[in-house]
Amino acid sequence: MNTSAVLDIGLQAIWIAAKLSAPILITALVVGFAISLLQSITQIQEVTLSFVPKAAAVAVALLVCGHWMISEMVSFTQEMFEKIPGLLMGG
């Protein structure tokens, strides 16, 4: 196994991790920003107010994107398993 193969696998792993976490993180960011904006407008300074809407939004994002996330992870895993013989042979 050469250095470029290891770097390629590492880059693919980081890319798939970023793709899979993006819908959940972006949803939490948008909902958190909206709740913070609402709190600053109404001057309600309750820390726990943003937790329930954020958790509900993340659950909806998981329901909407869950199938895509699983299929991406399965295809990545299959691709890695298909690469094993070539990596062990040095090709």
Automatic annotation (TrEMBL):
User: What is its membrane topology?
Assistant: Multi-pass membrane protein
- Where does the protein end up? Cell membrane; Bacterial flagellum basal body
Q: Which UniProt keywords apply?
A: Bacterial flagellum, Cell membrane, Cell projection, Cilium, Flagellum, Membrane, Transmembrane, Transmembrane helix
Q: Does the keyword Chaperone apply?
A: no
**Alphabetical list of Pfam families matching this protein:** Bac_export_3 (PF01313)
Its biological purpose is as follows: Role in flagellar biosynthesis.
Q: Can you tell me which residues the record assigns to a coiled coil?
A: none
Report the gene name: fliQ
What transmembrane ranges does the database entry give? 20-39, 51-70
- NCBIfam families for the chain: fliQ (TIGR01402)
Q: Which PANTHER family did the record assign?
A: FLAGELLAR BIOSYNTHETIC PROTEIN FLIQ
Query: Can you name this protein?
Result: Flagellar biosynthetic protein FliQ
Under the heading InterPro entries, the entry gives: Bac_export_3, FliQ
- Write down the species: Arthrobacter flavus
Hey, which family's this protein in?
A: Belongs to the FliQ/MopD/SpaQ family.
